[in-house]
Amino acid sequence: MEADIQQYHNQQADADKAICDVLYALISKHLEGAEPKVWHAHPVWFIEGNPIVGYSKLKNCVRLLFWSGQSFNEPELSPEGKFKAAEFRYTSPDQVDAESLKRWLLKAKGIQWDYKNIVKRKGELIRLS
After folding, report:
1. How far apart are CA 51 and CA 23, in angstroms?
2. Which residue pairs from 59-62 have beta carbons closer than 8 angstroms and sit at least 24 positions apart in sequence?
3. Which residues constitute the domain of residue 83?
4. Separation of alpha carbons 16 and 7, rounded Å
5. Average pLDDT, the chain
6. What letter would DSSP give residue 25?
7. Whole-prediction pTM value?
8. Which helix (H) or strand (E) holds 45?
9. What three-state secondary structure class fits 82?
10. CB-side exposure of 109: number of CA atoms within 13 Å?
């Protein structure tokens, strides 16, 4: 595990750290080749500089966020924000469904909106192939 992500995990309460550990292991396994790093204070995986998935501690849960998740057609994921992001919230590591997460991650590889250049395009998102 990358040192900055390990530090992030170590700062969490035990229950939240357990969720983060499960998410890290599954994301790393199924998003091979993606670049993990702490970005805006939480772990995020990038493909060619484009943010794909990340997680963060909120007040009462750990939120898993897919930047292009609204395009996955997955009813378990809730829309987040004004762009294409979608999320799932966990309060226990037992709630992490490995098969659903694997499916979402496979979709995340193939369905991407260009967040990397969103500022350059003045807020316009373009779907990547």
Report:
1. 16
2. 60/91, 61/89, 61/90, 61/91, 62/12, 62/16, 62/19, 62/20, 62/23, 62/89, 62/90, 62/91
3. 3-128
4. 13
5. 91
6. H
7. 0.89
8. strand 42-47
9. coil
10. 14
Short-list 82, 83, 110, 93, CA closest to 55: 93
| Structural domain total, the chain | 1
Q: What CATH number did the domain enclosing 108 receive?
A: 3.90.1150.200
pLDDT single digits (tens) 7-60 = 999 999 999 999 999 999 999 999 999 999 999 999 999 998 899 999 999 999
Tokens of 36: 């993990």
Both tokens of 62, joined, read 């750990």
Q: In percent, how much of the chain has pLDDT > 70?
A: 90
Lowest mean pLDDT among 29-43, 56-70, 111-125: 111-125
* C-alpha–C-alpha distance, residues 128 and 2, integer Å: 28
